[in-house]
Design goal:
By secondary structure, the chain is α+β, with helices and mostly antiparallel strands. It has helices at 34-49, 81-90, 92-102, 145-161, 192-201, 211-217, and strands spanning 6-10, 23-30, 58-66, 71-78, 107-120, 132-140, 169-177, 182-189, 222-238. The chain is globular and about 55 Å long.
Length: 240
């Protein structure tokens, strides 16, 4: 069987609803400066693009640059956890060694495993292209899959009943961690400024001051979280 080349597309985004995804891996690299962010993206593109696609069940791998000038977000879609473990054993070290040689001192933090639970938007016929990805991390006090999903369901109720949603949001894709302790909202926005404006206009986050949003913010068991804005850097997939 012939090897499959790797297709590297800069500024491209994955499809969070892609069929066949069994597990999503998300992690952050701390780079320190925008210059190191850019250098790492270039090194990732070279390390992946110069090698054949690791045909072990990886569907896509995407990288995003944090608008804070520090973070790199990694978001990869896999057919299964076994596929990721196979990649980890056979292919990960060579790529990371090449990247580390090009950009020493990368701090790798927070690898988590998720499954997509619910998605909202875009609306049919919406022509907008996401220019910014907003990652909302929510942490809970111990594993409880029912609580994860109840919180996400509460967000959808708040969205559905909000009388004045900000115009810049395109879609939101809520991922529940496999260990039952976290939720990751991968939200697509028109632009970084659209999200900044939405936060400035909202009473607590991007939502209106409604009882439904109050239940989201005061949900039992939520212990922390954060919001980070990212710009698309690259997505790699097997060449078609």
């Amino acid at each position: 069987m012939s090897a499959t080349p790797t297709d590297v597309k800069f500024d491209a985004l994955p499809d969070p609803r892609r069929p066949g995804v069994g597990v999503v891996k998300s992690s952050v690299w701390r780079m320190g400066t925008p210059e190191r962010q850019r250098a790492a993206v270039e090194a990732i593109a070279e390390a992946w693009g110069s090698r054949d696609w690791p045909d072990v069940g990886l569907l896509s791998y995407s990288v995003y640059t944090g608008t804070d000038g520090d973070a790199l977000l990694h978001y990869s879609q896999w057919r299964s956890e076994a596929a990721y473990q196979d990649f980890f054993r056979r292919f990960r070290d060579g790529r990371n060694a090449e990247i580390d040689a090009a950009v020493p001192g990368i701090e790798r933090v927070g690898l988590h495993s998720y499954e997509l639970y619910r998605s909202g938007g875009p609306q049919p016929g919406d022509p907008r292209t996401p220019g910014c990805i907003v990652i909302v991390d929510v942490e809970f006090e111990g594993p409880d899959p029912d609580r994860q999903r109840a919180w996400v369901d509460a967000v959808f109720e708040a969205l559905d009943t909000d009388p004045d949603l900000p115009p810049g949001g395109i879609s939101a894709h809520f991922h529940a961690s496999l260990d039952g302790t976290r939720v990751l909202n991968y939200a697509e926005w028109e632009s970084e400024q659209a999200h900044i404006d939405a936060l400035a206009a909202g009473s607590n986050g991007v939502g209106s001051k409604t009882p439904q949003w109050a239940r989201v913010h005061d949900h039992p068991g939520v212990t922390g979280g954060g919001v980070t804005r990212y710009l698309p850097a690259l997505t790699v997939t097997p060449a078609s």
